[in-house]
Amino acid sequence: MLTQRLLLVGFLSIYFMTGSSGIASSLTASNRTLYVNNVTGNDNFDGLKSEPDTDGKTGPFATIGKAFASVCTSDHIEIANTGRPYKGRNGLVKAGGTADKPLLVNGNGALISGLDRVPKEKWNTIRKGIVATKFWPMSNMLKGYEPIQYWIGTPQIWWLDGKPAPNCTNEEELNRTKGGFYWNKPQRQLWVHLPAGKTLDDVIIQIPVHGTAICISTDFVTVRNLRAMFSWNDGFDMHGRGKNTVFQHCIATDNCGQGFSVHDTNVALYEDCLAERNASSGSCDVNECHSVYRRCVFVNNSFEAGVYANEKSHHTYEDCLIVGNLPFEQIWQRHFSSMNFLNCVIAGVPRKPNGLILLENGMVHFRECTFADALFVFRLSEQQGASVSIVNSILTRCSEPFLTISPAITSRIRMHNNVYFAGTGIKLGERVFGQNDWGEYQKISRLEQDSIWQDPKLGGEFNVNMQPDSPVLALRQKKPFTRIGAVLPDSVWDLYNKTRGDVATPNGIIKAR
What we know:
Elements: H1 2-18, E1 33-36, H2 64-70, E2 76-79, E3 86-87, E4 90-92, E5 103-113, E6 115-117, E7 124-127, E8 130-134, H3 140-143, E9 159-160, E10 163-164, E11 167-168, H4 171-175, E12 181-184, E13 189-193, E14 205-208, E15 214-216, E16 221-229, E17 236-238, E18 245-248, E19 251-253, E20 260-262, E21 267-271, E22 274-276, E23 283-285, E24 290-294, E25 297-299, E26 307-309, E27 314-318, E28 321-323, E29 331-333, E30 338-342, E31 345-347, E32 357-358, E33 363-367, E34 370-374, E35 378-380, E36 387-391, E37 394-398, E38 403-405, E39 413-416, E40 419-421, E41 426-428, E42 431-433, H5 438-445, E43 452-453, H6 490-498, E44 503-505, E45 508-510
Parallel strand pairs: 1-2, 2-5, 3-5, 4-15, 5-16, 11-12, 15-17, 16-18, 16-19, 17-20, 18-21, 19-22, 21-24, 22-25, 23-26, 24-27, 25-28, 26-29, 27-30, 28-31, 29-32, 30-33, 31-34, 33-36, 34-37, 35-38, 36-39, 37-40, 38-41, 40-43
Antiparallel strand pairs: 6-14, 7-8, 8-13, 9-10, 9-14, 12-13, 41-42, 44-45
């Protein structure tokens, strides 16, 4: 099975470099550039110039949706970064590109927001001072999670007169909180306690009402340099039967669903992208899709995993940082999906410990990764059909056994050439084997050949990244250049720091000083 997985990784690399067939290349490609500007543009213009002409017909479109509806094969769309957010829910289905000339959507750092004012006619009066509107965001796990019957408060999505509004967790709290908001999940409604003496005519209520910022449902498209926030759904998605879509330098924060999501049989590549403070996973890929994430960051997402694979989907993560996602594990492998991690850092939240990996019946493989700051790395029982391999990796700072394994399933586990430090050991059956009886564990389990206990002398951001100039760990049985653990590119740490302290507001992003 491991050989099959490695073949899949090679196939995806070729797929993204060359295209899957010559069929799309036979299409007639356009050479147009369409322009979008939400300050000077007008959807009655032709979109063919970056600024309006004096004829009243030539100039940029005002909306991304108009450009997507007007595009021809292999066009180039330039979105002006005006400092004003564009509206969300933009789906590209009409045309894509070719293997030789992909359709390019260049965002120039522009922001797309799903936030909007709820019209007066959409509200109903519950009783004096309290009004309600329909609200059922695409926060899949949260919607079905019985212990929580309210909005979790992260991200901040309620806005009253341009200011963040209190998030109430029940009706009683709402009753005593004027200006407060309460997501009545059982009734699928948002309730608002209007400020004293105010009516709907006196206030501006803004909540996420527009869906996924950018959704691609066609072939050979490259989306660059965009940021999505406050979507009622996800940040950047693929649906339908598209292939060879590439997202580069895209940032998804403060959305009600996932940051990134690939569906159906789509094939997608995400490079240098970041997902933070989304109300679901950083990424959630489903059905039979294939995805590759390179140099991406999944951090501080608030209700699911950092990365989530479902059904029969297949995924590769290269040089990625997956850290601090709550309240569950950092990685979810569900159903028969498969996941491959190469040179990644996977870390939990020390003050709120949880596990790092949840397994079901698929495959998860790690090479040259670092695992840190959690209750455990993974637990695997006879009821779970998953296979796991961890090779050339560091496992450190877990308060419970790093691994919990049933002796009957060791044939489905490959652990080799790893370094352990600062933990209680590995639980095999009912016994925990630690540093002092490591040789006995290796003999009984037939796992962890060449693995040792040793201080890896971690450094870098939050003490989990080995610095490039640090001595590289090499086991005596191996050649001197054998590397153990992850060394992330500087660009990944720069991306991680890019949104530290950012505040999303109805008018845009307030950058931290």
